[in-house]
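Dear colleague,

Thank you for sharing your sequence with our group. We've completed the structure prediction you requested, and as agreed, I am returning the results in plain text so they can be pasted directly into your records. Please verify that the sequence below matches your submission; if there's any discrepancy, let me know and we will rerun it promptly.
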Amino acid sequence: MTAVSFAPEMLALAFAIAASAGVVRGITGFGGALVMTPPIALLFGPAIAVPVALFLESLVAAPMLVQTRSEMRLRIVGPILATACATVPLGAWVLRTADPELLRRAIAAIVIVFSLLLLHGWRYAGRQRMATSIGLGALSGAMAGATSIGGPPVIMYLLSGPDAIATTRANLTLFVAVTSLAAI
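Please find the predicted structure tokens below.
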């Protein structure tokens, strides 16, 4: 394992990256980990970047939970959330055992793929069914534990549903807060 440098200039750069992620999170309601994890993983490695991103995501989401609680639809997000929390340990195991260079590449690939899908306007076209929600939750939980980026599949799934944007944002806030805490 190579030594990680916490030199002042590295910490200043990490702070600037986290601030940029905060701006994106503030504008969109999600995406902080998408912006923050890849460059922080390059600076300090995935084993540091993932828990830091998860901690910051859960910290930022906590006050939003109070504001959005009346819009949440647990019937929709509950099965996704329960399954995601159950599979976070699998992702954490991957984080601890996988080659850090491979994880850096996986983090970058996840960001690129989901960014391109969102950019092209791709949406899930099927019905929101229990089996789909459970499978999606399992994938997202494992991704969150391994990379801190478990939200994109859930984002794309919930954005394709019939709910109002306020409900979708509330459900996403709950998902990110709870899975981030579970992963920590």
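Summary note from our side: The chain has a mean pLDDT of 88.

Kind regards,
the structure core
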